[in-house]
């Protein structure tokens, strides 16, 4: 008996998406090109029926702030609540955790020489809630359990793309050694290119986004040729959220992957937005 990684779901998570859902703007000309990427993802999820989602995202201040910012944090809570972040969004549904699998991941990562922060209490913000509102619209409760991993994409110094890919691969090894029979969905959220502040506010880089989308499945090591600082230059200071995607890709393992669905639209809420679904080939 062994847990099975059934696929990888990647999406942007900007709070404006939550506002569009709240207002019912999915079919408006501004938002429709982004939301058009999700019907095939929802259909795939309905058929694949994952039990657990291992989600790589970045915290925006709900758990960690600039005075205390772990490079890598792993949730080990029995449940994960959302809370008001000040965006005017509804407070989203809570997730059930999977503490046994979380602790297995944590133990394996530490043995693999990753110095992580363990969170037995943890809130999840829009970086987790919005991707699942997109994937499972209108459900009364989430149909899968959550294991959240938070990566610092906010406070200098940031982990490198190379280190994030290594983290993901270590998570993959941990999942491969787990004795359960769960069907596991790997998720990476954030991005793509955007910068929300400073002289380059509004900056986006479709060329770099396409480089990432074109290489993520087949050649993720190609994304590790830049430092985190170079990624901030290429993708914008918030575009470094691509680190979450890189880590999630590592967690899928070094196996051939098929691209089930891809959507890219620019801009929504000053962000180059994308969704991507990968499965083992």
From TrEMBL:
Gene3D superfamilies per the UniProt record, alphabetical: LigB-like (3.40.830.10)
Domain Extradiol ring-cleavage dioxygenase class III enzyme subunit B span(s) in chain numbering: 8-271
InterPro entries: Xdiol_dOase_suB
Entry's Gene Ontology molecular function annotations: ferrous iron binding; protocatechuate 4,5-dioxygenase activity
EC number in record: 1.13.11.8
Superkingdom, taxonomy of origin: Bacteria
Protein's name according to its UniProt entry: Protocatechuate 4,5-dioxygenase beta chain
Source organism of the structure: Novosphingobium taihuense
